[in-house]
User: Fold this.
Amino acid sequence: MRKTNLVTVSMPPSMASQAEKVAKKQGMTRSELLRYALRRYIEELQAGEAIRVAEEEYRSGKAKVLSPKGLARLLNVKK
Assistant:
């Protein structure tokens, strides 16, 4: 049984060529490169949301001082 899902992605030829070159230079497959890029994008979105929530709480006076573990939980960081 497969542990992955097959996803087909359409992109302009120039982007596909760039992806191929970057993957080769980094010693990765295209799939590895695209998985890496998607993980980074999701992490950026989560970090942005955490910052937005923290700023909102700060402005409303509900801000709390977080421990490193609390911050990691807020950012949904997994070790």
Notes: The mean pLDDT is 88. Helices lie at 13-26, 30-60, 68-75. DSSP finds three helices and no strands in the chain.
